[in-house]
Amino acid sequence: HFRIFTIDGECKAKIIRGFKTKTLAKEAYTEFVTKYCELVRYSPTMKKDEKKDVLLVGDLFREYLVTLLNQNKASVIYDKEKVFSKFILPKYDKKPLAQLTKEELYRWQDELWSTKNERTGDFFAYNYLDKIRGHLSSFLSWVEQRYGIKNNLVDVSKPKRRQPKKEMQFWTKEQFWRFIAVVD
Questions:
Q1: pLDDT of residue 92
Q2: Distance, CA of 151 to CA of 145 (rounded, Å)
Q3: Measured between alpha carbons, how far is 113 from 107 in angstroms, rounded to an integer?
Q4: What pTM did the predictor assign?
Q5: Residues 121, 167: contact at Cβ < 8 Å?
Q6: CA distances from 16 to 2, 20, 81, 105, 162 (A)
């Protein structure tokens, strides 16, 4: 068994078989190399595998979880896994990270904000949606630090709450004293 490299750096495995002795096999190897191979003074540069250069969201997320083991509690890691497995990985697991453009993240966020809870039929609470978005944001910030790929979620504005906040109501002194009288 031996390997040869083509001029463009592609590695090929070769096998020579059927020799009765090791000496005959070595002679056949030498004959093959002198007849078909050329010695070069420089090391051939390996051809890059384009499939390995593509960073997939799912692969990076699994790597991200491993790095969190010494930084977060187990409950936080469990929560992130559940959020990602339910809201992010079904859509983006096998997609390259470069496809998470600003437009794509807006589409994801709009879809998320329009999602209803399967059990109750109501929209998810704003705080829960904000937590999902925060988990994705922290993951994309980690990717930006590690791999230098821009976090496009920073440019995506967060939607406002569905319901406007209610105005606080205050009791008058008379209402308070009436309440206290009943309590006593």
A1: 93
A2: 9
A3: 10
A4: 0.62
A5: no
A6: 9, 12, 50, 54, 72
